[in-house]
Design brief:
The structure is a single chain. With 339 residues, this protein is an alpha/beta fold. The protein has 11 helices and 9 strands. The chain has one domain: Rossmann fold, CATH 3.40.50.1820. Helix content is 34%, strand content 21%. A 9-stranded mixed sheet has the order 1-2-3-5-4-6-7-8-9, with helices on both faces. Strand 1 (60-66) and strand 2 (70-80) form a beta hairpin. Helix 6 packs across helix 7. The longest helix has 17 residues, at 183-199.
Length: 339
C-alpha cells in the first residue's frame, strides 16, 4: 500500500459520488415554483437562523465628498444587534433620479475601499487591476453603488481575540458554526439590510437593484440572490461552480462551507432559486480554485431550471480568458441590458 492509500479525500469523494441531493430539479412534471419554495426554505435553515425581527437601521452619514462625476458618502448602519456595517455610497451626477442601485461586495481583500478604487499598497493596485473597483464601475455607468464591508474583512476584521487564525475568516466562521449559524448566512443578512437601506433612499429605483461581487463577494452575491427576491440582477464572479469540482477537491477558506449543503443541492440547482430574475455568471477560463469544467457542468442544470420558468434570456455565462478576477468589459454590457 502506498503512503496515500489512507487519505480522507478518497473516502469523502466516494461518499459524495454515492449521494443524490434531495432537491435536484427534475424537468419531468416538476412544479418549478413549488420546488423553489421548498428549496429556499431548506436553504435558509442550513444558512442558520436569520434574525426574526429587523432592528432599526439607524444610518449615520459620517462624511460626504464631491467628485467630478459623483458624490461619495461614508456611512454606517445597523444590521442586527452588535453588528454595524460600515459602507460607502456613491451617487452619480448628471442623471435622472431615481436610478438602479448595485450592492458591491469584495471577497478576501483588505477591505471595501478596493470597491471605490483606492489603493493603499502594491497589493491593492494589483487587486484593482483585476477589475475589482465595483462601486466606481457602477457609478460610471450611471448607477448608485453601495459598497459594504463584509464581516471579517477590512474594518470588520477580528482585533480583540488574542490568539487568532492566519485567515481572517477562520475564527468567525467556526464561531458561527458552533452557534448553529454560518458566516455565509450572516453576510447574506448584511446584504438584506443593505437593500433595506437602499430602499429608504429617494435616489434609488427600488425595482432595479443588483448585487455584484468577486470570489468571496461572489459567494455572498449568489446566496443573497437565492434568498432575497428584491435582487433583480445577480452577478456572482469567480464563485459559481459545482461543489464537487471546487470546494470538495481544492483548498478553500472555511467561510465557503455550509453544513449539509450537498445533501440538499449542488450549485446548479441552487441557482434555480434566482429564476426568473437575471443571473449573470462571470468565470475565468484559468481560475484554479473554481475550475471552468465545474462551472460549465453546473450551468447546464441551471439552464434546465430557467427553461422551466421560460426565463432563458435572463441567464448568462461570461467566461474571461484569464484567472480568478472580474471581467468588466464582458460583464457590463450584459448588466446594463438586464438592468
Amino acid at each position: 500500500m502506498g503512503i496515500d492509500y489512507f487519505v480522507p479525500s478518497d473516502y469523502h469523494l466516494k461518499y459524495l459520488a454515492s449521494l443524490k441531493p434531495e432537491m435536484v430539479f427534475s424537468k419531468k412534471g416538476e412544479n418549478p415554483v413549488l420546488w423553489q419554495r421548498i428549496l429556499r426554505a431548506r436553504l435558509k435553515e442550513l444558512l442558520g437562523d436569520f434574525p426574526r425581527k429587523k432592528v432599526p437601521l439607524k444610518p449615520k452619514i459620517l462624511q460626504r465628498k464631491e467628485f467630478r462625476d459623483y458624490f461619495r458618502e461614508r456611512l454606517v448602519f445597523t444590521s442586527e444587534p452588535f453588528a454595524d456595517i460600515p459602507a460607502y455610497l456613491l451617487i452619480p451626477k448628471n442623471v435622472s433620479l431615481p436610478v438602479p442601485a448595485v450592492v458591491c461586495l469584495q471577497g478576501h481583500s483588505p477591505g471595501m475601499y478596493i470597491s471605490i478604487g483606492e489603493a493603499r499598497s502594491k497589493h491593492d493596485k494589483k487587486s484593482i487591476a483585476g477589475d475589482r473597483d465595483f462601486a466606481l464601475q457602477s457609478v460610471k455607468e450611471g448607477y448608485l453603488a453601495l459598497a459594504i464591508e463584509q464581516r471579517c474583512f477590512g474594518e470588520r476584521k477580528e482585533t480583540k481575540q488574542k490568539a487568532r487564525a492566519a485567515h481572517g475568516c477562520q475564527d468567525a466562521a467556526m464561531h458561527s458554526l458552533i452557534l448553529g449559524k454560518t458566516l455565509i448566512g450572516e453576510r447574506v443578512w448584511d446584504v438584506i439590510r443593505g437593500i433595506d437601506y437602499l430602499e429608504g433612499r429617494k435616489e434609488v429605483d427600488k425595482k432595479r437593484i443588483a448585487c455584484l461581487g468577486n470570489s468571496g463577494g461572489g459567494t455572498i452575491t449568489f446566496f443573497a440572490a437565492c434568498i432575497d427576491k428584491r435582487i433583480k440582477v445577480a452577478i456572482p464572479s469567480c464563485y459559481y461552480c459545482s461543489f464537487s469540482h471546487s470546494i470538495m477537491r481544492i483548498y478553500h477558506c472555511v467561510d465557503n462551507y455550509i453544513p449539509g449543503i450537498m445533501r440538499l443541492a449542488d450549485i446548479g440547482d441552487l441557482a434555480g432559486l434566482i429564476a426568473p430574475r437575471a443571473l449573470i455568471v462571470v468565470a475565468g477560463e484559468k481560475d484554479l480554485i473554481f475550475p471552468i469544467k465545474g462551472v460549465r457542468e453546473a450551468f447546464q442544470q441551471t439552464k434546465r431550471i430557467y427553461k422551466a420558468f421560460k426565463a432563458e434570456k435572463y441567464l448568462h455565462l461570461l467566461v474571461g480568458k484569464g484567472g480568478h478576477r472580474f471581467y468588466k468589459d464582458l460583464a457590463w454590457p450584459v448588466i446594463k441590458n438586464q438592468l
